[in-house]
Amino acid sequence: MLAAVVTPVLLPPSRVPASEQVPKDAQAADLLRLFQGMIRSPDYRHGPLKTLNDEFPFFVPRDRESWETRRRQLREQLLVALGLWPMPEKPPLHPVIHGRIVRKGYTIEKVYFASWPGHYVCGNLYRPQPKGEGVAGNKGEVRYPGVLFAHGHWANGRFHDAGEKAGRASVASGGEPDLERGRFFMQALPATLARLGFVVFHYDMVGYADSTAIAHTQGFRDAEAELRLQSFMGLQTWNSIRALDFLASLPDVDPQRLGMTGASGGGTQTFILAAIDDRLRAAFPAVMVSTSMQGGCVCENASHLRVGTGNVEIAALFAPKPMAFSAANDWTREFLKRGYPQLQQLYALYAAEDKVQARAWLEYGHQYNVHARQMMYAWFLKHLQGRDAHIEEPPFEPVPPKELSVFDADHPRPKDERDAKSLREYLTQQSEKRRSQWLPSDSQRLRTFRRIVGTALRVMIHSQLPQQVVPRNVPGLELPRTVTIVDQAVQLHLIGRDQERDALPVALCSPSKGGENRCIVWLHPQGKASLVVDGQLHPALRLLLAADCTVLAPDLLGSGDNALPKPFQVNKDYAGYTYGYNRTFLAQQVHDALTVIAWCHQLHKGTVVHLVGWESCGLVALLAKAMARETVGRTAADLQQFSFHTITDVADPRMLPGAVKYGDVPAFAALCAPDPLLVYNHRELARDPWPENAYRTAHASHQLHRLAGPLPAHEVVRWLLQGS
User: Which residue has the higher pLDDT, 333 or 36?
Assistant: First the structure.
């Protein structure tokens, strides 16, 4: 049930209790505080940040239409987080296939190709031999379903040998039928699929087996990588996309029947690729998807990836296509009780309950043993070959791991192979080249620019204007509360979004004339305390009130009553462990600004809302305006010469992963076109072509005002009041 919206009662100064009257020489700002003594803010953001080991429930939307909207937004979130929004152009793969090994019923070949120039994906290609189940191609050749196999974090990846001791233990426990499969299950899986009539590409994760030019998890952890959304997981996902490109291009593969499987970290790659690549027709992520631990490796995490979501919902993006899961005695042990029932409900919205399946083997630990593999074989046979069959996995003859290597004397490692530094330089060059193509120099490019950068900004802030803002109640605190500062009644409120547990303190000042035709959202790093200077109302506030404006000043997260009990802690090992599950500090402040903007419209329907950002909150104001372009009128922002590309610390409170990739401050200013915008104290922005082009294309050049230096407060107010 939605909470009722309560419009506060504005009390005149004469009704303020005498105990709340403040002499001019008193510390008037102290009276603007809500939380004192034992009364604390109920805002959930004052508690610990979310981590990958928390709970991530999936709440099924009420209908398909709601889910399709959510699905589109979540898919955009994944693409932005992975550095793939918009999808990059794909350079030629130039695959090398060699070294055919013949086994009973199948063959193995060695493959490498360049997913980016100088960055190579290596793997083994398993094919049916002799011809198995297939369909005729255009030239009469037989085409088979294709399956990608992502190996996960087992030692040495596709070269994995569990060893004789571990192999015998797997046999003794009933997890594997014989020693060969106990030691080499990583080969047993693609070998069996090939014998069943599938072409399988078993490819390396970055840093495993033959793909070692970049060490696993290394090279993508600094501030520059964050600002450009260059992540290890993004690279690995790109390799999965290109691996699917390779598989689909083979003459003996039917590109309309593609599947993917993988366990653990390979399971992560499976459901991520299933979520963003429409070519997959069936998927089987093993021992990974759950509402608990979301993936512990750098290669499974990226900033923005799971803010407001989790693995179960991400996997749900594949619906209604066939997806099955295996669980074990690990973090997936509760999946059949929490997560899988919700997926069944979602598939029911499409009348596709038979397209989702899960089974748990709690007698075994984290594994992809013969029982789970046999479930997977049956799943792919049914949904990629149209056959209902239970498969008993046959014995097989393993290949010594060294013989699976793609590099040998005749096929040495490519001389142009790139390390992480060189690859990132190439990616940066390509990104900047593509961004220049978005320069909004005509109406079509302006639409493209707004779609690309506007979507990216929504994801980076993880917010939008709320549909409803409600009052918050705190035991022992009477709200709203009215105090008088000198001669001005100031109302103190605590508000929040209907669907969140936030609590945002706001001071509301109304003009003595009672007019409410203009509302100014006042953003300042000191919050509502900034309304008072030396016991007097801020001169700019007096000017606004005299002009019959209502002023709302929030305590954005980190200021005033919304000060954090502890500094915003960013994971020192990898920022994606923090920003992958939580809004950044800057994004939280923009989120709060959007809340106040929506509340202002809610209180005074028809009111024109203007926005002013003082000092460091100028950046907050600019980003909020860019996200609420059609809701905010005039916006004035002090940018203090700040640019995102100057950030060198991932824990910088202004860090916004992706900000440089999508054009930095000038691009966000360009998003504000065609509305009135005053940006000052920023030399770079004063001469940057992005805002100028956007405003000129929108036929609103006269609405853009850029100054390289600072501007007195009274001049800012004068500009805000123009045209009102």
Answer: 333
